[in-house]
Write a structure and sequence with these properties.
This protein has 56 residues and is an all-alpha fold. Helices cover 82% and strands 0% of the residues. It is built from 2 helices and no strands. The longest helix has 31 residues.
C-alpha cells in the first residue's frame, strides 16, 4: 500500500503548487508508483486466491 500512498502524495503536491512545470516529474512518479502498487496488490490477491484453493 506504500506505492498508493506515494502516488496520492505526488498528486496532492502537484496540485498544491498549481501544476507547476518544475514539478512535472511528479506526474511520472505518480504513474510509476500507481502501476507498482496495482501490480503488487494484484500479485497479493492472486497469492491469496491460490493459497485458498490449495488449502480448500
Amino acid at each position: 500500500m506504500i506505492p498508493a500512498l506515494i502516488s496520492a502524495m505526488a498528486a496532492c503536491t502537484w496540485h498544491l503548487y498549481d501544476n507547476a512545470e518544475s514539478l512535472r516529474w511528479l506526474v511520472t512518479l505518480q504513474a510509476s508508483t500507481t502501476l507498482l502498487g496495482n501490480i503488487t496488490l494484484a500479485c497479493a490477491a492472486w497469492n491469496l486466491q491460490r493459497d485458498a484453493t490449495v488449502k480448500g
